[in-house]
Amino acid sequence: IRLWMQLKKPGGMEDEIETRVVTYPDLQSPDFSAVNPLKKVPALIRSDGVTVFESNVILSYLEDKYGDAGPSLKPPTPEGRQSMELSK
């Protein structure tokens, strides 16, 4: 996710997306469990309060939401996107 943020536009996406460092004890807390019931990172809280987890789901959401913030980081063809999905 952090790599996507840096590649999406020069200087990164920190002005649009807040990031936090989470420690292992944080992952075990009830507060974090409410964000990601799998108790692992990454996790995303959307502006409407909905929580999203799993890297590929978060990356797809961010690319859809901020697609115009910089160059597309998804391949332009269905075959390319399928290949990208298989290599995760």
Shape: globular
The oligomeric state of the chains shown is single chain
- The amount of helix comes to 40-55%
Would you identify the regions where 5 or more consecutive residues have pLDDT less than 50? Answer: none
Strand arrangement, largest sheet?
A: 1-2
- Structural category is mainly alpha
How many strands?
A: 2
N-to-C SSE string, H for helix and E for strand:
HHHEEHH
Number of helices: 5
> Mean pLDDT across all residues, rounded?
93
Radius of gyration: 14 Å
- Terminal CA distance reads 13 Å
Strand content: 5-15%
- Biggest pleated-sheet summary: 2 strands, antiparallel
Question: Outline of this structure?
Answer:
The protein is mainly α and 88 residues long. Helix content is 42%, strand content 7%.
What does this structure look like?
There is one protein chain. The protein is globular and about 40 Å long. It is built from 5 helices and 2 strands; from the N terminus they run H-H-H-E-E-H-H. Strand 1 and strand 2 form a beta hairpin. The relative contact order is 0.16. A two-stranded antiparallel ribbon has the order 1-2. The longest helix has 11 residues. It is mainly α.
